[in-house]
Amino acid sequence: MKGVTLENITKKFGKAHGVADLNIAIQPGEFFTFLGPSGCGKTTTLRMIAGFYFPTEGDIYFDDRNVSTLQPNKREIGMVFQNYALFPHMTVDENIAFGLQVRKLSKATIKEKVDRTRSLVRLEQYGSRKINELSGGQQQRVALARALVIEPDILLLDEPLSNLDAKLREETRVEIKRLQSELGVTTVYVTHDQTEAMAMSDRIMVMENGYVKQIGTPQAIYNRPENRFVASFIGETNLIKTTVRQVTRDEVEVESEEGIRLVGMPANAAASADLRQGSTVYLSIRPEAFGIGPGPNEMLGRVQFVEFTGVSIQYVIDVKGFHFTLMMINDGNELLAIGDMIVVHVPLRNVYFLGE
Ligand code: ATP
């Protein structure tokens, strides 16, 4: 396994930039995910690591080796794409063997490696099946086996689950994670699905518009977003524009444009938040942070919307004209109805401050 370093990488397409000024250090064996909305530059970055694009500026290293302009077949990478890119009329084994035949290994070695990799992805019984006789999930496991059989230094996965239905996605997600930790192969994963990213990754890079917005562990990105984009892209949140009214060592009191007064803790803030009296800060309060009934940051609201999903209930409540989204675990009690008045509160530690 190798580390992957991107130094000051920019990729331009004509005058437009695909990505700009990327700096990443992916550790050997790490599961590292590029996450962001469509067009943010995830695939462009992955393609540069693979060697399908060369960077306009900057350098790419695998460990200490500068690979910026090395051809893809010289990079010892395994790749899996969204659309599998398998040979449909060939068997599972023929597909898995492909990369080994290109490398001109002996027949016996190829057989041994194909057998081992086929059982690694739990397709023991399927060696002589044709690809077009397999389910989508099985096909994706063949694609994974084909990438892994060459024992790559780096595994690159570009939205590999997006053609699978919800249940298969979850199963294959677990499978990929299991394989990755078993093999310890450095993995770069591209997705626009934040749940997938959170569940699988050691670290996530959140991108927007060709720029990095934050790199961190799933917990850091969820609990301590550095900016408003990350706060709202990762999970759901209530973002409230406020003015700082009072600051002490332990507490920051703010007031929203609607006149809602809320208190948080100064330590619970992004570096971008200016917590001086009179400055503008944004609060991020997650829907699951609310409690029903009196408590700190108590508010009275009118229910606007109710959605029951079984495990939880989502409410939207109006407090002085601001609409808060709340998420409550279903405890079997009667649901609130639209128009009901409700008292809610938010613990101070769940109020998070962000900059402009
Ligand atoms: P998606 O999730 O939709 O695949 P993405 O995050 O992978 O999106 P990229 O495909 O990396 O985004 O694209 C980043 C930007 O670069 C986009 O604005 C895109 O239009 C542009 N771009 C990508 N490839 C090319 C190309 N070959 N020529 C011109 N522009 C391109």
The biggest sheet amounts to: 6 strands, mixed
Q: For the largest beta sheet, what order do the strands appear in spatially?
A: 6-7-8-3-9-10
Number of domains: 2
Average predicted local confidence, pLDDT: 93
CATH hierarchy, class of the largest domain: Alpha Beta
Residues in β-strands, percent: 25-35%
The CATH topology of the largest domain, please? Rossmann fold
Tell me, briefly, the overall form. Answer: elongated
Give unreliable regions as ranges.
Answer: none
H/E element order:
EEEHEEEHHHEHEHEEHHEEEEEEEEEE
Q: Helix/strand-derived class?
A: alpha+beta
CATH homologous superfamily (4th level) name of the largest domain: P-loop containing nucleotide triphosphate hydrolases
* C-alpha-based Rg, rounded: 25 Å
| Distinct helical segment count | 8
Separation of termini? 41 Å
Helix content: 10-25%
**Hetero groups:** adenosine-5'-triphosphate
Give structural notes.
It is a single chain. This protein has two domains: 225 residues, P-loop containing nucleotide triphosphate hydrolases (Rossmann fold, 3-Layer(aba) Sandwich), CATH 3.40.50; 119 residues, Beta Barrel (OB fold (Dihydrolipoamide Acetyltransferase, E2P)). It is of the alpha+beta class and 356 residues long. A hairpin with a 4-residue loop joins strand 11 and strand 12. Strands 6-7-8-3-9-10 form a six-stranded mixed beta sheet, with helices on both faces. A five-stranded antiparallel beta sheet has the order 13-12-11-14-20. It has a five-stranded antiparallel beta sheet with strand order 15-19-16-17-18, with no helix packed on it. The structure holds adenosine-5'-triphosphate. Adenosine-5'-triphosphate binds next to helix 1.
